[in-house]
Amino acid sequence: MLRTIRYAAIAVALGSAAQAAEFTWAETTDPQTMDPHAVNSAPVLGFLNNVYEGLVRRGKDMSVEPALATAWEPIGAGEGWRFTLREGVTFHDGADFTAEDVLFSYQRASDEASDTRSWFAAVSEVNVVDDYTIDIMTSAPNPIFPSSIANWMIMDSGWAEANNAALPDKESGNYATLNTNGTGAFQVTAREPGLRTVLEPFAGWWGEAEHNITRAELTPIQNPATALAALLSGDVDYINPVPIQDVARLAENPDVNVIQGIEARVIMLGFPHEADALKYSAETTDANPFADPRVRQAVAHAVNVPAILQTIMRGNAEEVSQLVSPAMNGFSTGLADRPAYDPDQARVLLAEAGYPDGFSFGLKCPNDRYLNDESVCQAVTGMLAQVGMRATLDAMPVQNYWPELRADNYDMYLLGWSPGTFDAEHPIRFLAATPNEEKKLGSWNFGGYSNARVDELLPMVQSEIDADKRQGMVDEITKILQDEVAYVPLYVQPLVWGTRSNIALTQRPDNFFILRWVTVN
Amino acid sequence: MLAYLIRRVAQSGLVLLIVGMVAFGMFRFVGDPIDNMLGQERTQEDIDRLRGQLGLDQPFAVQYFRFLENAAQGNFGVSYRQGRPVSDILLERAPATLELAAVSGFLAIAMGIALGVFTAIRRNGFSANFIMSASLIGVSLPTFLIGILLIYIFSVELGWLPSFGRGETVRIGNWTTGFLTETGLKALVLPSITLGLYQMTLIMRLVRSEMLEVLRQDYIRFARARGLRDRVVNFRHALKNTMMPVITVIGLQLGSIIAFAIITETVFQWPGVGLLFINAIQFVDIPVMAAYLMLISVMFVGINLIVDVLYFLIDPRLRADRAGAH
Fold this sequence. Notes:
- The structure holds two protein chains of two kinds.
- Chain A is an alpha+beta fold.
- Chain A is 29% helix and 23% strand.
- In chain A, the strands form four sheets. In chain A, strands 1, 8, 9, 10, 11, 12, 13, 14, 15, 16 and 17 form an eleven-stranded mixed β-sheet that branches. Chain A has a four-stranded antiparallel β-sheet with strand order 4-5-7-6, with helices on one face.
- In chain A, helix 9 runs antiparallel to helix 11, helix 14 (425-432) packs antiparallel against helix 15 (452-463) and helix 15 packs antiparallel against helix 16.
- Chain B has one domain: MetI-like (MetI-like fold).
- Chain B contains 14 helices and two strands, in the order αααααααββααααααα.
- In chain B, helix 1 (2-30) runs antiparallel to helix 13.
- Chain B is globular.
- Chain B starts with a helix and ends with a helix.
């Protein structure tokens, strides 16, 4: 009897002390490839961050910290950056990590066949100084370069070449599409696309393990109700996302935790700045009211963002005044206030602009891209109607949505933007700069917004080393965009993760799930 | 006979061509795959280049013809999403769907016939009436609701069965089976009930009404009058004569079990071809969609062809008609 109790006590002690655990999780999207340079999308990069590593990485608070590089410093007066590489790092297959791999990964990731080449637009050349030092030269001073390459993952040159995967192949795939060989804390031990991907800790990892996972399995579950049931029944330990409407119910369940945060993605309304006339109006067929900043300002005042957040987002999001959220580098703190909800002011502005009776137009909206996107658009439609702007809402799946926007088939549209570099420069480059195919500027500026001063300031922002001066320029751009109401930013999209209550993890605003911060208790 | 067969095969081929064309014509409304294949930082140049590589800039007729040309050689192209040959992916996913379809088909037939006979014999009994009323659920509730309901009861509340997936599978050659592991068998229960429920109620109601019809026939009365035991009358004489129309319907329903597994597979994250198809639609993975639709239409056309030929063989009137034309 006594012995049984003693054994039981030992078992309990072992159970809590050993702490080794298996972990399963579900996401809506399966990473479509294991190649870190083939597709620049969050599901792929987020997953591969557990397997591959970059020269730098982002910490729990999104700050840039050393990874495969231990230190970096600018060369001369901003001709480039010198990275000192970590010694004694090995890839999962045992090969040593050296500067050659960095050079190879640069060539691979910046090739035309890669989806990540825009990260290296500023790079003029890469020079190997010695095995553990590498110089990355830029055509102009580039202060944010180290923080812009946190998702640039290093691949072993020997492995890639031996397996005929020296370049990514998006169309027909190659060895690196299904297999991995990184330096990260976890290695992929089984991969069945669309079904499951199994990770196991890499024994030879250079870092200190914070997790207690012995095996982790990712299963994509597309149906939100199924994912929720899987979490509730304990079949999975973590799901992302939790449907907003289920948050309150889940929060009452003692077996699960809901972890909420703010994503980096800003949801905004966009306008046809260049169009001569509305496309979907019943009566205003020869003019474009949205070309008038007063009309755009009226839109900003007419939309009751707090009400949208309260009802549709159930209080899980934050309103925003500019193209980036407060968590991003370069946020203009002095310009943090959104135009107040003021329908009377909106009516006055419309009257001033020559539309005292309002007008009708078409609002385009995706219905499966952002959280509750269609509901938000319905609410916006109702709110705009109260001041006389009568929108006809046309909501569609995202695969149909982008082609419509590219073809200029909208009078107003909904857009979400998450800056890949976590810097305010990113949305300026893609959304506010005058579209320029050659310079690769404004590629998501569907409405063709154009301001000479913004175009002038952007290259200066990109190359300014002095942080205060740079912030001053970003503030000036933000001010212009707010004054001219280039876009109407609405809110920052929420992040809602669900876990079993015995799981401890860290949620990062980029919605990346970092396995090495997970503890199973 | 030969001429008839050739004509039927030619007709089937034509149907396939038309199905393929309609499907292909619809793909342009599903959306543009380019945005899913390129990231946020793509340029117009990247878009144009990829579109050229995939042949999406070609006119509809050229794309369709190219697809037919490749499909005739057994090449369904490479999945836009996975970057692997579509035929490999389909072969990988087929066992899951076929095993699910087989189990739910078996369930539907066995339970359907048993309950149909029972409710016919005990026409006015309480339990028969209860089963008849309950079967309305199977006919009227949509599949996804039944699936979610079963998950809620048996996985979330009771915790008896897994809520999603296929459990552990064993690989035998190119085939993966869930029949050989405990988790695999457990995982089969809820999806196969969900998928088979509609077919089961259909078969049950059909068997019941056919059986009632047969039980009124004179030869059944005479059999009873001869003093044969109930069991012999019901099963040897009545059921046997009920089965002809039932078998026809079962044959036709076989195809729809596989084709309509899509919803069940989505609810249970069952890794079969139906789920693959749904994912392909979301991603505008045209090669996968095209191959799946062709596969399903080949299956239906094939079943119909076989049924037609069987009718010709079984039913002398079909032959008599043609003989009369001389």
